[in-house]
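Write out the 3D structure for:
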Amino acid sequence: MGKYGWLDSHAHLSDDTLFDRIDEVLTNCDINHVDRILTICLTFEELGKAFMLQEKDARIDIAMGLFPTDTHLHTEENFKKLEEVAKDPRIVAIGEMGLDYYWEKDPIKKEAQKEVFKRQIEIAKKVNKPVLVHSRDAAKDTYDLLKEMNHYGVMHCYSYSVEYAREIIKLGYTISLAGPVTFKNAKEPKAVAKDVPLNKLLIETDSPYLTPEPHRGEKNEPAYVKHVGEYICELRDMNQEELQQAIHENYNQLFLK
């Protein structure tokens, strides 16, 4: 084994699917040499669980944000709460946040998503922490908004083209690839995995969602990030130790500086 193991830059450990069997989930991480996990919280209840997990396991980092389609959570009270918790040193990033037009077709509600996205980036800028960007079927509006807001962070679970990735990187964002890169017909994620500069690449599971091959069809968990990493090593014709070191250095530079 080299100096570094695998790193999951985006998981939802507070989700009941994982939280209810957390000891097994973390043991599987031990077995598969996963030595860092960024857990994403989308409610303040999930955040409370994440703080408990972090006390139990030092390899867990925490992010908190308001998801674009969780409109019932987009209240003034929650924005104020988020501003307060954003200052907490235990929180290393704000998000995930962003635009999701897959579920939302109403133009007025799309504009509301943009406002929620902007407010959260403003909070992140105040505390100088990166943002974790969720973008689905919203490439142009996401790009325009990130350019306007002039911040930095991660495009999580990246699903757009190589050309778009290059433009997003120019704005100061790192590209994170998840389980879909291992799917047989996922041509764009594979092309992106080969093209992204090594110093702008992260990997993730987005567990309990988007389970990679060879476990597709099962519930996802952070241990499976190794399948994402190993597959990218094959695509890039590189050894695992090189990728593991790169993703740790990229992660540390973004989140632990």
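The beta strands are 6-11, 34-41, 60-64, 91-100, 131-136, 153-155, 173-177, 201-203.
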